[in-house]
Structure formats: structure tokens, C-alpha cells
Fold:
Amino acid sequence: MLSSWDDYPVHQIAETIRHVGTSDRNFYDRYYFNLHGSSDELFMVMGLGQYPNLGVQDAFACVRRGPHHRVVRASRELGDRMDTSVGPFRVEVLKPLEEIRIVLDETEHGIAADLRWRGAIPAFEEPRQYVRKHGRVLFDTMRFAQTGCWSGSLRVGDEHFDVTPDRWWGTRDRSWGIRPVGETEHPGIRQGEGQLTGMWNYSPMQFDDHAILYILNETNEGERLLEEAVRVWSDPAREAEWLGRPEFEHVLRSGTRVVEKSKIGFPEAPGGGFEVDVTPLTHAFIAVGTGYGMDQDWRHGMYQGPLVVQGLDLDHDEVGKIGQYGVVDHVARFEYEGRVGFGLHEQAFIGAFEKVGLKDAGGGA
Structure:
């Protein structure tokens, strides 16, 4: 099956670009973006993914604004992989690794946008994530991350926002590889345990002239399956600084699995250790309605038909009753050594994680 990509010298295997180097159903290739006003007023998360072995391409936008949890989502059959559009969504790469345009055309579902992303730091390759359970590879992914600024326009409900780069910041990543997607498979020997367990914590922190990229996946037993701590300067001539083993302190809101405040430490940083105080400002339960696994009828890569476009307008507090058990994305303020920045503070506590007071899979702190 030839496509427009096949006219470019980008092949990696003896196949057309339509076919990837593995037949694993869970291969994916996707974009993630978030947008905030460096405040608690609004938080938007967007994504678009391709699933070549499932024949699906889908996209979503989720906005937390006051009591509203709004979602627009779309899915279609995958054709030419160079066509990064799904119904009202499209992603345009204007300058690779630097500048992207995101468009969500007007629909009846309450979110519309025409936004341009510009990276504030060079795109940074993060460590590979690899998890094998009972013989099967569940995660084998690569990702790059970038902090940056937005410009353009955004409509949420009846409100219009002029988005300017002085304060409308955000984070993006591009990831690809293998992770659970599509329709739920029978768990077999893996039943009773999550795909990813313990704590997932990811915080790309944006400051005026640099970013700190911190990742940690730790099991309840203290094993670290993935970790990263690096300072990346806006000036590409300056080399990134690895900050050593990261440490954390999280305080959860009583009775929940939602972070109320955090402290992220880098005791092995070059030139002396330091700690970052993290204050979440607002958050979105992105596991609900967007495809991240909490909904049985809409998951990333799930076949919905030739083209389907849907919208949701849900009560944020009601969504949180189930959403707190999946990935929660916070807009947060980050402070250290007189510097103030903003960015994403992403958390998930899957099953027990006793270091923060979660003694089982169902309870809160």
C-alpha cells in the first residue's frame, strides 16, 4: 500500500511506510500537547495518534474550565500516514522539532482552536521505557519532550481566549513504540494486576531560560522502572545537565489519590543539590473521555468506524470520582532558588503506593 511518505527517503525496513517493523497490535505513534495560562483559569490537553496495526487514527481535546470537563474526540480509519487529520482535528508540522500548528474546527461540541506551538527549548530525547510481564513486552516506547509557548485563538463554550506566548505556555511530547492500546484484551495470567503499577510522576517544568524534565515510575516495592532528571537550557549551545537520582515528597488531598502539593529533590545535581516546591493550580482528569483507558467504549486505537466525532460536557467533580484512579494532569507552579516557573505535574497512582498513604488499590490517602 503506497502512500505519500513512500516518496521520501525515510524507510527503516523493507516495507512501505504504512507498515511498521513489528506486527504487535499495540504499536502506536502519537502527539501530546497541553496549554495553560500559567494560572488556574484553564487547562487544555490535546492528542492525536496513529495505530498502524489496528488501522485507526484518533484525536481528542480536553478542557478543564471551572466545573466543566469538556471533551471533543474523533476517530477514523487510518489511510495515508502523512494525513494527520481526524474529522475537525489536524496537526501541521511547520518546522520539525520547533513549530507545530493545531487546529480544531468549529463543531457543536464546545471547543474550537487554531493554535501555534513554538518550542522554548530544543526537543529532548527521553529514556526508553521498557516493561516485560510474564514474557510479553507491554511497554517499549521512545519519546521526546519539549516545553514551549502558544499563540492563536481558543473558544471554550461561549468564551473566547486570545492566546499569546507571554503567558500561554505548555508542554508537548512525541512518543512511539508499543504500549497497551485498542480494545481490551483478555488479561490471562496478568489478571488482577495493572499494566503499569505504583507511581507515575512526570513534570516538565518551564522557566525563563531553561526547563527541568523529571520522570519517575516507581513500584510500591521501591523498584524504579524509569527515571530521568535533566536541566535543558533554551540556548542550544549549552549542554543539558543531568541532575542525578530524583527524590520526591507528595501530599495527597485527604481521602483521594490526587496530589495537593509536592517537593521534588535533586540532591546529586552538579554544583549542589536543590529542591523544587510544586504547587498544583488546577487539574484535568484526562483518563476520562479521551481514550486513556477508563472508558470501555473509547480507548486510544479502538475502532469506531470510518469516521466518528463526539463531544462530552461533564461535571469535573463527578468525573474525579473515577478519574483519580488514572492519569491526572495538573498545571503547577514550580519554585526553586528564587526562580518561578510553570508546567505540567502529571501523576498516577495505580494500586497500592504506601509512601503516600495508599495502602490498597481502591482507597484514598
